[in-house]
Design brief:
Length: 343
């Protein structure tokens, strides 16, 4: 697609309180043991300290990711810290006041500004107004760090930036980290929105055309292996003309049909999921997306295996796509898939 020729939420802990929740015979944890959006181990104590008004642990955590060039971790922690600072800003305001040039504080400030603007009723206008903190994070950050550029990509997408500007930001991002997951997800979102705006009926194929080569070129343990899954989720979560278990028929001579490509995206994500231990919180966001997609594709046995691997780590996305009770939705789908008559 010529459009992008340059392209080659608040942490919450919550228990289900439904009575009589017992361990599942299928090997799933009991409903009462499932938690929503629990931060992984390095982040949990940092959020506890922030709740006490202490910003030092957050500064140390992000400085460590920068020193190790752990960009995917840095991106996830930045999002979570900004989400935590949204309703509890005092600890972060003290950090920014004490170290106004700290690249880690500037990064969280940019993410926080974009998050707040994104919730405004006048979203595009509010996002245009937060350009300065986004630019400050990019200008004041580590020259190797792609995360400020991921934030800039999200900001550009939210302001309906023209393709030429988005492509320039994309070039800056991939120059720093060619396999950074967050930047690719931002580009995928921009491409999908552009297809919708243009009224293109081939948006899913365009997104997969972008996602599949990116995953193919990435290391086997990279989160980019889940990028086609992310594109598949966009198809299955909104406006798809076929329901769970149904397949669109391929057109003669057109190569693999959309259904086959969605299955292939799920298979690639299954291989990525298998590289992590059961119950590991780090791949939980991918595993939750994968379970959702597998159920929508009618692959219930595969979905059940992902629910086993998820263990107690439910995430709001994608279960919040059609409900304000993501944990309840997760548990209902898990019960349905885990029932003996379903597998």
């Amino acid at each position: 697609m010529a459009l992008l020729s340059g392209l080659a939420r608040a942490p919450r802990r919550r228990r289900n309180t439904s009575p009589g929740s017992a361990p599942h015979a299928s090997g799933l944890p009991a409903d009462d043991d499932v938690l929503l959006d629990v931060p992984e181990e390095p982040l949990g104590p940092v959020l506890v300290a922030a709740a006490r008004g202490e910003h030092g642990p957050a500064a140390d955590l992000l400085a460590d990711t920068r020193a190790r060039a752990a960009w995917d971790e840095r991106d996830r922690y930045t999002r979570r810290l900004a989400a935590f600072a949204g309703p509890r800003p005092a600890w972060f305001e003290r950090w920014l006041a004490a170290a106004p040039a700290d690249p880690d504080a500037l990064l969280v400030a940019a993410q926080l500004a974009v998050d707040r603007a994104g919730r405004s009723p006048a979203r595009a206008e509010a996002l245009r107004a937060v350009g300065p903190p986004v630019g400050a994070a990019a200008a004041g950050g580590d020259a190797r760090d792609p995360v400020p550029w991921r934030i800039a990509l999200d900001h550009a997408g939210g302001t309906d930036a023209p393709p030429e500007r988005f492509a320039r930001l994309w070039e800056q991002a991939v120059r720093r980290a060619p396999h950074h997951y967050g930047c690719h997800v931002a580009a995928l979102g921009y491409l999908s929105a552009a297809c919708r705006a243009a009224g293109s009926g081939s948006g899913t194929c365009a997104c997969l055309d972008f996602a599949e080569p990116a995953a193919q070129d990435a290391p086997a343990d990279s989160l980019l292996q889940a990028l086609p899954l992310h594109a598949a989720l966009g198809r299955l979560a909104g406006g798809n003309p076929y329901g769970p278990g149904e397949r669109p028929r391929p057109q003669a001579g057109a190569g693999p049909g959309p259904g086959a490509r969605l299955d292939a995206a799920a298979d690639r994500a299954i291989a990525l999921s298998a590289r992590f231990a059961p119950g590991d919180p780090w791949p939980a966001p991918v595993r939750n997306q994968l379970a959702y997609v597998l159920v929508r594709l009618g692959r219930r046995a595969d979905a059940l295996e992902q629910f086993r691997l998820i263990g107690p780590h439910a995430t709001s996305a994608p279960w919040d796509l059609a409900t304000d009770d993501p944990l309840g939705h997760f548990l209902r789908v898990r019960h349905d898939v885990g029932g003996p008559e379903q597998v």
